[in-house]
Each structure stands twice: as C-alpha cells, then as structure tokens.
Write a structure and sequence with these properties.
464 residues, Alpha-Beta Plaits, seven-stranded mixed beta sheet, disordered N terminus
Length: 464
C-alpha cells in the first residue's frame, strides 16, 4: 500500500508539473552539428513580453513608444557537457547582425533569407525561426528550447526567496525606477528584473547589460546551490513547480526530461559553469540600425570548441588541457609586493608554462580573474581548477595565452588535483557581483565598472 500510495503521489506531481508547462510545436528542426557523447545544447530565451510583469514594465517610459508583442530580449546558448560535469553558457547579443533563414510567416507569405538583428528572428517567425537562425550562426544543433518572460523571471527569483548581489558602483535607471546604492542588496523579483534589464546609462549598452545578466545568473546559481535546492526533494519540488509555471518549452521536452536534467545537474557546482559572450568585433550601422558586428573568426573558434569538446584525446573529460599546454601571463592587480612573483613560482612548480616576467596591472583588486581568448576556454578552465575563487572573463584580444590578474584573495594554489572547470564563483563564497572591466584594443582593462552606472564616489567593497 505504501508503494502504491507513493507511486500515485509521484504520478500526481508529474501530472501537476506537466500541466503547468506551456509548449510550442515545431521548434526543434534539423540543422547544426549534434552534440556528442550525451552532451546537450539548450537555447535559453528571455522574452520581453510585458504581460503580468507590473506597471513599471508594462507601460513605456514618458516620451517613448509603447512596446507591444514580444522579442527575444536575451538569448543564451547553454552547452551541457557529457556527464554534466561542466556547462558553458554563451550569451548571443540581441543586436548581432546575422543572416535570418528563409521562412513562411503566419499568413502564409514566403520571405527569403535576409540580414537583420538576431532578435528580429523571434519577432519575424517566433521560436522556430530563432532556433534555425542560431543553428546557422553557431553550427551547433539545438536540442531543446526554454523561454521565460518578464513575469516568469520575477516568479523564479521570488521562488528562491530573492537573490543577494553586491554592487561596487551605484545603479540607477529612471526608466524602471531602479535606484541601488553601492554595496549589498537583497533583490526580489521586481527589483531583479529592473536590474538585469537596464542598458541606458551603461557604457556599452546591451553588451554591458549582458555582463550584468551573466553576473546575476551566477548569483542565482549560487543561491540554488547554497540552498541545496537540487538535492532536497521538497525544495526541488517547489523549485520545479515555480519553474514549470514560468517557462515555455519545445514540445519534445517532457516534464520527466526536465527532471532528469535537474537531477543530472546535482553534481554540477556553480564553480563548473562558464559564462561568456559571443565575440563582437565592434559596432556599426546597417539599414539605419545600430548593430553589433560579430567577430566571425573568434566566434567560430568558440563554437567549434563546444562542438569538438570531449572528442580530442589531449584533454580530460571536463574540457581541460595538460598543464604544460597552458601558457600563463601573471599580473599583480592587488598592489601587494611580490604577489605576482610568488604566483609565477607556484604555477611553474605545478607544471604550467609561465610566459614572460611578472608585472603589475593596477592596484586594489580583491578577486583573482583569469582572462582568456575565445579559443582558450579549456586552458582557462585548467588554470581555474587550481586557483580557488578565481573568476573567468573572456577577452577577445587574447589568443594562445591566458592572463592571470591576481587579487588579494590569492593565497596559493589549491592542494587538490581536481580538474574542476572555470568557475562563476565558489559555492562557499558569498554571491557577490564583480566589477566588469572594459577592454581596449590592447586587452588591458580600463577603469569603469559596468556592474553599476554610478561614479567612483559611490564605490563600495564587495568582499565578504
């Protein structure tokens, strides 16, 4: 009787979750290289549909045209490696100038392939056309599609009890009423939505917004991990309930599929998730629109690294490299005497190839950052595996070498031989949001934190 009762309860929960989901048909179509060895590519889309999101998002700011319908406000390609040992999330800027495949609209009219912004694909032909566009752009097959709108995002944040973030600069946005001082804040769903959507007042607009979204996503992942959501049946049940009420998925993804993915990710700590952005060469104007120009060679190298992940015999199953194949330049960003020299010796003794002499790059940094080029993700992961708390940051100007920018948090290499991937933050650390540096043509960070948009007068330390 107990077994029968338990089975009935499980089946009841399955039906409940299944009934929550909104599904769209015909989204997943042939195209792109299939992920190998059990790996999976999921297209995560944030729709800017305002329905149910609250007045500050439903109504256009004064003097601006009212926004109706929906567009793909955020597009992320999530590559889940085989065995779910690590994941790579690649943000695809919405203003990227891409080729949209030929399509037939909802009135039966045929349209030839055309050049347009990436988010136009969603507006023209919905999820199916967006998936085709991304498959053509990346050369990767999309296995599943997950979409969340404004209201869904708010529900997800609230389901977690809010998320703690720390700004080293104030953040202000007159359009949504966002007004956050430097320092720690506990954001509810409404505040979080305003925070991740701001682009006005940020130096690089949508690209800086992507950085902020990535940072907030990292904080959310740490919140899920620290709360034990994926390992506690009751918390997992509550999380799946909120999640299934908040998303739209392709019709090939069942509730059981989502539960399997969630359970398979239990061993995937936030430290094994890499957040990066498709390389952009610069900005331009096309057909009277301000657009992002994709760096085709570097972007292809990035996507090829995901396509070939696990197929090469040189690295291990987590997409890392032998240490002697990791070429590292070491910089002291903390201003602590002898820090770079000490780290260089540590790395050399551990078998890494230290390039050049230790050098200074700024002062006052607390967090250690590893910068890497689009084709050097495996090298960055290998280095991050031995430096607790190091943050990964893509630098499109780098190639063949990774830069280690030492913060005051560096106290030597990890004693473990584990090859965990590059991290968005240790599970035991506070969920702080780090400053993101703008890089010039030399690849050297310039001052200017885009986590907030205030001045240095309002700066605060985000160390725990």
């Amino acid at each position: 009787m107990v077994i029968l009762g338990s089975s009935a309860l499980l089946y009841s929960r399955y039906l409940h979750f299944n009934g929550n989901l909104n599904r769209v048909t015909g989204v997943i179509t042939p195209g792109g290289a299939q992920a190998s060895g059990g790996a999976m590519n999921v297209l995560l889309v944030g729709s800017d549909s305002r329905e149910g999101a609250g007045d500050q998002f439903a109504q256009a700011p004064a003097g601006q045209e009212q926004v109706t319908g929906q567009r793909s406000d955020t597009v992320i390609l999530a590559h889940l490696a085989k065995g779910r040992q690590h994941a790579t999330l690649v943000s695809l800027p919405r203003d990227s100038w891409v080729t949209i495949p030929a399509y037939t609209d909802d009135k039966g009219r045929n349209h030839p392939a055309q050049q347009a912004k990436l988010n136009a694909a969603f507006a023209f032909g919905g999820p199916a056309l967006l998936v085709k566009t991304v498959q053509n752009l990346t050369g990767l097959h999309i296995d599943h599609y997950v979409e969340i709108d404004f209201a869904g995002f708010q529900r997800m944040v609230d389901a977690l009890g809010g998320v703690d973030v720390c700004l080293s600069r104030p953040a202000h946005d007159a359009h949504t009423g966002l007004n956050l001082s430097a320092g720690w804040h506990h954001l509810n769903g409404t505040q979080a939505l305003a925070f991740v959507r701001q682009r006005y007042g940020l130096p690089l607009g949508d690209l800086d917004r992507i950085k902020r979204q990535q940072q907030f996503l990292a904080a959310m992942m740490r919140k899920v991990e620290s709360a034990g959501t994926l390992t506690n049946p009751l918390k997992l049940n509550a999380f799946l309930d909120a999640f299934t009420k908040s998303v739209t998925v392709d019709d090939t993804m069942s509730t059981k599929d989502m539960e399997k993915i969630a359970l398979s990710l239990r061993g995937l700590s936030s430290g094994n998730v890499v957040l990066t952005t498709m390389p952009i060469a610069g900005f331009g104007t096309r057909d009277g629109q301000s657009v992002d120009i994709i760096d085709t060679a570097k972007a292809q190298a990035l996507f090829d690294s995901l396509k070939d992940e696990g197929q090469s015999g040189t690295g291990d199953s987590q997409g890392t490299l032998p240490r002697n194949q990791v070429h590292v330049r070491v910089f002291n960003a903390a201003g602590i005497d002898g820090l770079a020299a000490r780290a260089s010796a540590d790395l050399a003794n551990a078998g890494f190839d230290v390039v050049g002499s230790p050098a200074n790059r700024g002062t006052g940094a607390t967090t250690t950052v590893i910068e890497y080029g689009p084709a050097d993700l495996a090298a960055a992961r290998t280095l991050a595996a031995v430096i607790p708390g190091a943050q990964l940051r893509q630098n499109d100007q780098l190639s063949g070498e990774v830069d280690l920018l030492l913060g005051s948090s560096y106290h030597g290499l990890a004693t473990t031989t584990s090859s965990s991937a590059g991290r968005v933050g240790s599970a035991t650390e506070s969920a702080s949001i780090l400053p993101v540096a703008d890089t010039g043509s030399s690849g050297t960070p310039r001052s200017g934190d885009v986590t907030g948009n205030g001045t240095t007068a309002g700066a605060a330390s985000c160390t725990a």
